[in-house]
Every structure is written in C-alpha cells, then in structure tokens.
Specification:
The protein is of the alpha+beta class and 64 residues long. The protein has one helix at residues 48-59, and strands at residues 14-19, 28-33, 39-44. The chain has a 3-stranded antiparallel beta sheet, with no helix packed on it. The structure holds zinc ion.
C-alpha cells in the first residue's frame, strides 16, 4: 500500500491542529505535515459522524 507523503518535504508524518482562519466564524482541524507544517487537508472542528450517531440514538433510529 502506498504511503501518504507531504508534497513539500516528502515526510510521511502528519498531525491535526485546531485553527481559526481569519474572517471565518468556524474553527477547522488542519491536517498538516508534522515536520514542515504544510497543510494537506481540513476537517470540521466537530466530528459530524459522531454527532449524527448521537442524534440518531436520541431519536431511536437504528441502521441495522
Ligand atoms: Zn512537510
């Protein structure tokens, strides 16, 4: 299986960092190279899948 590599420094180590972009009302999780900080993706601050599952549980909705 191929390894993900940083497009800037070829490192294969990544981390997430909470960030509030200027002029934004939302916090984001940046996925960045842990060596040089190059941002390779973003995720929502909240884990939408987890939140959706909790709402479904409260509403008694089951998928299986
Ligand atoms: Zn890098």
């Amino acid at each position: 299986m191929a390894s993900s590599t940083c497009p800037k420094c070829d490192s294969t180590s990544f981390e997430t960092k909470l960030h509030s972009p200027h002029n934004s009302n939302f916090k984001l999780q940046f996925i960045q190279c842990s060596r040089c900080g190059c941002v390779v993706g973003t995720m929502d601050y909240y884990n939408i899948g987890y939140m959706l599952r909790k709402v479904m549980e409260k509403l008694g909705i089951r998928l299986d």
